[in-house]
Every structure is written in structure tokens, then in C-alpha cells.
Design brief:
386 residues
Length: 386
């Protein structure tokens, strides 16, 4: 006969408790990950400002949960200590991520699912889903965000009834996009942005999605970090995008879940989630901006046959202000919106003399060919989000 489990009290968890909890650590293994960049070809060229998270406003929304709990002590989850402490518990992460698709799945499960549950319990009619679940997907096939928040009756829990529910259409109320953390370090992007280099953050934003669907709020996540975005349209001012500092997945105040819930409280009415931006879309976003490489175009580009490398090597000149430093050490340059780690070496004197017979050999020793560099961004710690 199977052993009888010991009697153990269940621990009940309120919505407030669930929101405060950090996200579990994403499981991924270096060397078993996608190596392609997911940066958008579109480039936001409008006004970009900082979104300062109003901690008092967020706390006020969360304190309302505590007050409601006194009147309606509903619990949304429970746990048993002996089960939670097991390394094989389903409460722990057991799935590995190596691509954007799985990052979307884990963020949906660990961030959006509990936030939606808390919102529905408080009569906030929003559920999360993929783009096909919203009304806008019937007329749009080009711009497809990874996540959408859709209007949904919180009291219709029978999905057969929901399918036939004609009163509320699943209109989009906010949207989000996911990228892989190992190719898109949002913490680094934000540090560069605050230092005056906006190229990467402008590539990563979902400005075209928010403009097309008239969304006031959106988010960009790599799971490890989430940036929240507000499309600001105010009378007498040029429209702009305001972006928050990245919130780390393991932060507990203000946590990722807490701020997502706060956004839900702002989208209860249509005025709370729509932003009617009158700026033409081709003035709001554009294609890939001019490459940040500068070289003399009045003369032919010199290509060198390098004995140790197949093909040719081009020597490209970067101005001092176009060579950047990672906070954790090391240099990089930006080419077509992509950060490329750089190895700084002092060229020999013969490399500076194009008439020297050692000219090519000197560059062979001193220049790292751009096509041979294939490294991820160095992971940085953002002190602002700690």
C-alpha cells in the first residue's frame, strides 16, 4: 500500500502576495541558444523620454488589494511547505529556454498569468493572450506583437459561454514584445541610452505596434528585464514615448508583476488605454538608420588579402566618440544598430604606411575582422534596478 502523506496545513496566498513575488530564474544554457538578433528593423525617430515609475501610485493600487482582502478574503493560490521545498516541485522552473518562443511562454506563465488572475478577481476585465486572440487580428497581418491584453468579462469563466458572449469584444488594451536576454541586454541598452547613445534602445522599442493600434501602454521584456513604455499624447505637445528603467525579474518592490497589475488598473476605460497619435507613421518610425561607421566615401574602399583569413579584410575607421565601453569592461562599436565587441590593438608603424611591403601583414596582426566577431553582449548589472 502507498505511504500515507503526513497531515500538513496548506498555506493560502492572496493576490497581494502573488504580485509581490519575484519571477523564478529563467533556465538557459550558454551555447544552446539562438544566436540571431531580434532587434526590429524599424527605428523609432520620435521624441524619447524617461518614464519615472510613480511608486506611490503603484503602492496605492496595491494597498487597495489589502483593503479588499479584509472585506473579501479570497485566496488565489496555496502551497504545502514540504511540496514547495522539493527540488522537483512543479512550482520550480523545469523548462529550458533557447529561443524567443520559449521566453514568451515562460513570461506568459510566470508574469502575465498571475497578474491576470489578480486583476480578474478585482473585477478588472483583462486577460492576456497572443495576437490572434484580439479583435485587431482580423484586420492586421503585418504587425504582430507577442503579447496582448484584451478586454474580457471577468465573471464569464465558462469558455463556451465566453465564445457566445456578444456584449464585450476582445479589443486590445495593451501590448508587449519579448526578446532573448542573451542577445538583447536591456540593462545595457538603458545604460547606453542614459549616456546619450540611443541607437539600440530605439531599435528595440515597439513604437510601430503602439502607433498602429493606438496603445497608450506597452512593454518590452527579455524575462530577465522588463521595460514599460507609455505613448504620451498630450494637447499642445509633440507625441513621445516614455520608457521606464528596466525592472529585474527578481525585484520584489516594485516587482514586475506589481507594475503589470498597476497598468491593468489604468486600462479599465477606453480613455485609459488608447493614445491617438496624429503623427504619420513614416515620421514616427523609419527603417534602419544610417550605419554609425564613418569612412571616406570619396575614395575606393581598400580591401586586403590576409594570408591567415579567407577572403578580404577592410579597414574601417571609427571616431573616438564611436567607440564605447561596456560597464563591465571591454570595448564595442555599433554597426547597423548591432553592438559589436571590439578588440583595441595598436597597429604597427608599417600598418600606417600603405606603401610598405609589410602593410597587409601588419593589419593581419593588428585588425580583428568584423565578420569573425561573434560574441554576445557582456552582461551588466544596472544599479538603478537593484
Amino acid at each position: 500500500m502507498p505511504a500515507t502523506a503526513p497531515q500538513e496545513p496548506a498555506i493560502l496566498h492572496s493576490g497581494r502576495f502573488l504580485l509581490r513575488r519575484p519571477l523564478p530564474t529563467l533556465l538557459t544554457r550558454k551555447g544552446y541558444q539562438t544566436v540571431s538578433s531580434g532587434l526590429h528593423q524599424s527605428y523609432f525617430k520620435g521624441r524619447l523620454t524617461r518614464l519615472v515609475i510613480d511608486n506611490k501610485a503603484v503602492e496605492a493600487a496595491l494597498e487597495a488589494l489589502d483593503k479588499d482582502k479584509v472585506k473579501d478574503p479570497s485566496y488565489l493560490s496555496c502551497s504545502v511547505q514540504s511540496v514547495s521545498q522539493s527540488p522537483f516541485s512543479v512550482e520550480h522552473e523545469n523548462l529550458f529556454c533557447g529561443d524567443e518562443q520559449s521566453v514568451c511562454g515562460r513570461y506568459s506563465q510566470n508574469a502575465l498569468q498571475p497578474v491576470a488572475a489578480v486583476g480578474l478577481s478585482r473585477n478588472i476585465g483583462t486577460r492576456f493572450g497572443d495576437f490572434k486572440t484580439c479583435k485587431e487580428s482580423k484586420t492586421e497581418s503585418d504587425l504582430i506583437p507577442d503579447f496582448v491584453g484584451i478586454d474580457c468579462d471577468p465573471y464569464v469563466l465558462d469558455f463556451k459561454t465566453l465564445d457566445g458572449h456578444k456584449i464585450r469584444k476582445p479589443v486590445m488594451k495593451l501590448l508587449g514584445e519579448a526578446k532573448t536576454s542573451w542577445k538583447h541586454d536591456l540593462s545595457s541598452f538603458y545604460i547606453l541610452y542614459t549616456g546619450g547613445n540611443e541607437t539600440l534602445i530605439r531599435h528595440a522599442l515597439v513604437a510601430d505596434y503602439m502607433h498602429r493600434f493606438k496603445m497608450k501602454y506597452g512593454f518590452l521584456t527579455t524575462y530577465d528585464y522588463t521595460i514599460f513604455i507609455n505613448q504620451v499624447v498630450s494637447p499642445g505637445q509633440d507625441p513621445s514615448l516614455a520608457i521606464s528603467q528596466p525592472l529585474a525579474f527578481d525585484k520584489t518592490s516594485i516587482s514586475v508583476r506589481e507594475f503589470l497589475y498597476y497598468l491593468l488598473t489604468l486600462t479599465v476605460t477606453s480613455d485609459g488605454y488608447t493614445a491617438r497619435n496624429s503623427v504619420p507613421v513614416d515620421e514616427w518610425v523609419t527603417g534602419t538608420p544610417p550605419c554609425q561607421i564613418t569612412t571616406d566615401v570619396d575614395r575606393p574602399l581598400k580591401l586586403f588579402n590576409v594570408p591567415s583569413q579567407p577572403g578580404c579584410t577592410a579597414v574601417v575607421h571609427f571616431k573616438p566618440e564611436e567607440v564605447f565601453e561596456f560597464e563591465a569592461g571591454g570595448s564595442y562599436v555599433v554597426i547597423n544598430g548591432e553592438p559589436v565587441p571590439a578588440i583595441l590593438q595598436q597597429a604597427s608603424s608599417s600598418a600606417n604606411d600603405p606603401n610598405s611591403k609589410d602593410h597587409i601583414g601588419a593589419y593581419d596582426a593588428a585588425v580583428e575582422p568584423l565578420h569573425s566577431v561573434n560574441q554576445n553582449l557582456t552582461s551588466l548589472d544596472n544599479s538603478e534596478t537593484s
